Amino acid sequence: MVLARSEVARTHRRGPARATAVRLGLMAVPLAFFALFFAYPVAAIVGRGLNDGGQWQLGRFGAVLGDPDVLHVLWFTLWQAAASTALTLLVALPGAYVFARFDFPGKQLLRAAVAVPFVLPTVVVGAAFLALVGRGGLLDHLWGVRLDTSVWAILLAHVFFNYAVVVRTVGGLWAQLDPRQEEAARVLGAGRFAAWRKVTLPALGPAVAAAALMVFLFTFTSFGVVQILGGPTFSTLEVEIYRQTADFLDLPTAAVLTLIQFAAVLGLLALHAWTVRRRETALRLVDASRTARRPSGPAQWALLWGTLAVIAVLLVLPLAVLVERSFAGPDGYGLVFYRTLSSAASADSTFAVAPLDALWNSLAYGVAATAIALLIGGLAAAALTRSRPRSGPDGRTPMVTRLLRGFDGLLMLPLGVSAVTVGFGFLITLDEPPLDLRSSWWLVPLAQALVGVPFVIRTMLPVLRAVDSRLREAAAVLGASPWQVWREVDLPMVRRALLIAAGFAFAVSLGEFGATVFIARPDQPTLPVAVTRLLGRAGEFNYGQAMALSTILMVVCAGALLALERIRLQPRTGSAGGAPIDHSGEF
Amino acid sequence: MSTTSRITAAALAAAAGVTALAGCGTGSGDSADAKTVTLVSHDSFNASKSVLAAFEKESGYKVRVIRGGDAGEAVNKAILSKDNPQGDVFFGIDNTLLSRGLNAGLFTPYKAKGLDSVPADLQLDKDAHRVTPLDYGDICVNYDRAYFTQHKLAPPQTFDDLLKPQYKGLLVTENSATSSPGLAFQLGTIATHGGGGGWPDYWKKLKANGVEVVNSWEQAYNERFSGSAAGKSKGDKPLVVSYASSPPAEVMGKKPAPKEAPTGVATGTCFRQIEFGALLKGAKNEKGGKALLDFLLTKTFQEDMPLQMFVNPARKDAKVPDLFTRYGTAIDKPTTLAPETITKNRDQWIKQWSSLVLK
Question: Which of A88, A227, A389, A541 has the least C-beta neighbours within 10 A?
Answer without folding.
Answer: A389
